[in-house]
Amino acid sequence: MDRRQLLAGMAAAGATMAAPWARAQGNYPDQPIRWVVPYPAGGGTDVIARSLSDAMRQSLGQQFVVDNKPGAATNIGAEQVARAKPDGYTIMSADNAVLAFNEYLFSKLPFDPSKDFTYIGAIGKFPLALVVNPSFQAKDFKEFLAYVKAHPGDVNYASPGNGSPHHLAMELFKNRTGTSLTHVPYRGAAPAMADVMGGQVPCMFLDLASGLSIMQSGKVRVLAIGSAQRSKLLPDVPTLAEVGVSNAEVFAFQGVLGPAGMPGPIVQRLNRELNKAFSNPDVAKRFNDFGMEPMPGSPEQFFSMARAESSRWGPIIKAAGVKLD
């Protein structure tokens, strides 16, 4: 057998081995897709995943099975997806924890957020707002800042838990303003909000998804919002930048990941369907109800944004000395 015959044989063998995988990509999806949510059922991340997957099902012609895998600050679900077969039939909702926080909050992770996932597309972001109990002495942001500066360490703030976006938002605020407040972590947003409304703890950063109704009802006073522009849902609330706190945009974000090594055509198909789902009336209503800003874009844009957030939050977490292990 001469060299040309050998090369031809190798090419034919490669084509034969690749043919089933190529056919699988061409027929994608031909079975249900598992969508891992690293939080309990019924929460905001779960609701968004179910809304999006239902809209995408209509275009893809296949069911999505939402699989809730809570625990270890999202690490359990994320590790399962990182180790899954990269065939497009296992994807997940990922947020700040998976993509920007946990690599600094834990001494060791069972995955590398920059290498062990395929980035499919961003979903959106929930701005966080600084709120106080209506009876608190400060009536606006200027008074609040003056008060906490005059009483270093005396003002408590609530959060849904150590390492949550709400906790770290206040750590960033403290870093940017040179203030000192004392953290009171709770087991979830609901009890934290209840104690701020009740006056047991005077303030917290609160996301619009959890707290929009109490913000609009006046059960808490909203001093500033951590978005780049004012929220259409709270048009009278200034941004942190407007009240003089620069480089302090604070939000919780979500996107869709799969295991590393997913085929490009499948990634592009899922990205296309994800972006299309944002215009679905049911999805658009859900986003609006949650105060969530959709973030359509490419996989590359999602990767760049997530890594930029990681770089932004790393120094804040390290300076605050926050650890979850």
TrEMBL record:
InterPro entries recorded: BUG, Bug_dom1, TAT_signal
Coiled-coil annotated residue ranges, if any: none
Superkingdom per UniProt: Bacteria
Family indicated by similarity: Belongs to the UPF0065 (bug) family.
Protein name: Tripartite tricarboxylate transporter substrate binding protein
Organism taxonomic ancestry: Bacteria, Pseudomonadati, Pseudomonadota, Betaproteobacteria, Burkholderiales
